[in-house]
Design goal:
342 residues; cytoplasm; elongated; 13 helices; alpha/beta; hydrolase; 10% strand; single chain
């Protein structure tokens, strides 16, 4: 009986014969899935085929392979692989199994699409929006009668795998490693500003204070107000609700403020419902930020084009439990007394 730990002499002989005859093993290429061949109802909660073609036309120059050697993926296949990852949030090898691709190929495809979509950020994410400022204010005013609003602001945590460097910086108040992302949106759920670079331990107020948009608002570049929760300081251009409202105008102010600001909570819920990968990113913090921004761009494209979305999941309110100075009390009191008296 031959020892099971020794090489099979038959296999060795076959290898020698192939070498002498210069016979290469047959390469088997598995068939790949044509996503656009599926019916529309299969894609309705992600993107329709027309929207996929639209996105493909935008980023095709940035993701196309230089050569078709080795059965390289087409630019359309690269985009569909990345969209599957964004929508499902599965492991890369799960996406590869579904698309008949290796994990390395899926990783390269997702990376290409992420970098290409980041180039489109200034085109699709514009503050205060693509519409005239007056139209934006009117849309917000129709919600609850709150005047001069050009955006609602909030922060959301995107869970990530614990990083190997500076791990403590990414632990948020819920003891979860995350990226704290600042989102500003308009009344139509279109995101007009995103800050995706801060660790989970950083408070919403600091992210806003350090942002370029905060300086632009303080300089009077924009004619309008932001609405935020109690995690932000009350400023002349950023209004928060009264901490202990008195009956009458202050309670009316808080009710209108809450109804109007709910748009940003709904927008964040839509973003995470459409792109399940944002429920947990198993990548480094730098790569996580490179995935969050493309998801925001895709969200705006889907919203502008009227795409349907999965069931909305609104997160619980998560105000920062810190005391912040209210330097915008004068503006808040003026609006309260002029617009919300009984």
């Amino acid at each position: 009986m031959a020892c099971p730990f020794e090489n099979d002499p038959v296999d060795e002989g076959a290898a020698l014969l192939r070498g002498e005859l210069n016979i290469r093993p047959v390469r088997v290429i598995r068939p790949r899935i044509d996503v656009l061949a599926f019916p529309e109802y299969y894609l309705f909660d992600r993107f329709t085929s027309q929207s996929i073609i639209y996105i493909h036309n935008l980023i095709r120059p940035y993701i196309s392979n230089i050569t078709n050697r080795s059965h390289a993926l087409t630019s359309q296949q690269i985009l569909c692989v990345a969209l599957r990852f964004f929508a499902n949030g599965s492991f890369l090898y799960n996406v590869g199994d579904a698309e008949h691709l290796s994990k390395a190929t899926v990783c390269r495809a997702v990376r290409k699409v992420c970098l290409a979509l980041k180039w489109l950020l200034p085109m699709f994410v514009v503050f205060p929006g693509h519409k005239p400022v007056r139209a934006i204010k009117e849309e917000f005013h129709r919600i609850a009668g709150f005047p001069s609003v050009i955006g609602c602001i909030d922060g959301t945590h995107i869970p990530i795998t614990a990083p190997s460097h500076n791990e403590a910086d990414y632990v948020n108040r819920k003891s979860i490693h995350s990226i704290n992302v600042q989102i500003i949106c308009d009344a139509a759920h279109i995101i007009s500003n995103v800050e995706a670079k801060w660790p989970g331990s950083v408070y919403d107020a600091r992210i806003y204070r350090e942002s370029n948009l905060s300086n632009r608002l303080q300089c009077g570049e924009f004619d309008g107000l932001l609405l935020g929760d109690r995690g932000y300081p009350c400023e002349p251009r950023l209004l928060t609700p009264y901490p202990d409202p008195e009956p009458g105008p202050q309670q009316n102010f808080n009710r209108a403020h809450c109804r109007t600001r709910a748009r940003v909570e709904m927008t964040i819920g839509l973003l995470k419902a459409r792109f399940q990968c944002l429920r947990h990113l198993r990548v480094t913090p730098e790569r996580a930020c490179d995935i969050i921004v493309p998801c925001v761009v895709l969200h705006n494209i889907a919203t502008i084009r009227g795409e349907q979305h999965p069931a909305l999941q609104i997160e619980d309110a998560d105000d920062d439990p810190i005391h912040l100075p209210a330097i915008g009390r004068t503006v808040r009191d003026t609006i309260c007394n002029n617009h919300f008296r009984i």
